[in-house]
């Protein structure tokens, strides 16, 4: 079981009997259909003799089928064929029911025999062929031997594959061992180098301690000089503090001035935004412009404002004429938002609503796209 999986072993054991049984059934069905077609083609034989009345249809059928059966090699190898031929009325013609049947047709004229043959052929013949492959015959044993050989071949392939895999694993394991040995030797060499480095560092530490002692001695000698320098530094720090306070006062004055300018600018922007909202509401009756879109429109350059208003004008006239780059899907049960690009860097987002029609949600640029999408996601 080391080189052969248990599932494959079970599969190969069960494969021959199952395939043998199904193969026999398939063979019986396929050969039965083929023999039926062949028997139907030769069952009547020479129709000229039948229509002349010199040969009875029943005798012709028996002779033709016996010759047909004698030529089939599979039947001689153990295949059993049960062939029956009857008229449309159910009268059996083959096989003959009685071996010593009286041949009273010698006393019947040819016209009567020909008429009877023509009638049965016109009404049609019912041909049935049942094939049975018996066990322990040449055909059955050949099929069973084939599937046993196939099963053994599969086992051999998997066994050989397992052996090859085991050999590869063994080679790989030996290679890993050699690598580990190399790593071990290298680690030992590095350990030796580290010990030498440790000794060198120890000697260097001793030298540093000696140097440190000398430097401390020098520091004590120069302590007075350092005190004088510290006093001078304190005086410089005091002067810098005074300068810092003066600068802070100047910064506070500048902040106050900036706040006043920003308030004036904000008031101006509010007036501009209100004017833009009134303008959009007056010019574009079929479009509702969101406050966020008006604010973004106000931040654009004059050229981009013209391009943005051109898109709004198109949306107002016919939204279908606008080129949409993509759809921005919002949360569940929200209207789909569409993205339009203008002036290369400009972005306009709108949606179609049942109440207001077209609603322009956001107008911005490529740089504000992140915050704009976050705004759309929170709608």
Please write out the topology.
Elements: H1 6-42, H2 47-52, H3 57-71, H4 73-76, E1 79-87, E2 92-94, H5 110-123, E3 125-133, H6 138-221, H7 223-283, E4 287-289, H8 291-298, H9 302-317, E5 326-328, E6 337-342, E7 346-353, E8 357-365, H10 369-377
Parallel strand pairs: 4-8
Antiparallel strand pairs: 1-2, 1-3, 5-6, 6-7, 7-8
Q: Tally of extended strands? A: 8
Unreliable stretches, pLDDT < 50, 5 or more residues? 99-106
Shape from CA axes? elongated
Provide the spatial order of strands within the biggest beta sheet: 4-8-7-6-5
Strand content: 5-15%
Report mean pLDDT, rounded to a whole number.
Answer: 81
Helix count, per DSSP?
10
Radius of gyration, Cα only, in angstroms? 53 Å
Query: Considering DSSP H and I runs of 4 or more, what fraction of the residues is helical?
Result: 55-70%
List SSEs in N-to-C order: HHHHEEHEHHEHHEEEEH
Describe the main β-sheet briefly. 5 strands, mixed
Distance between the termini: 66 Å
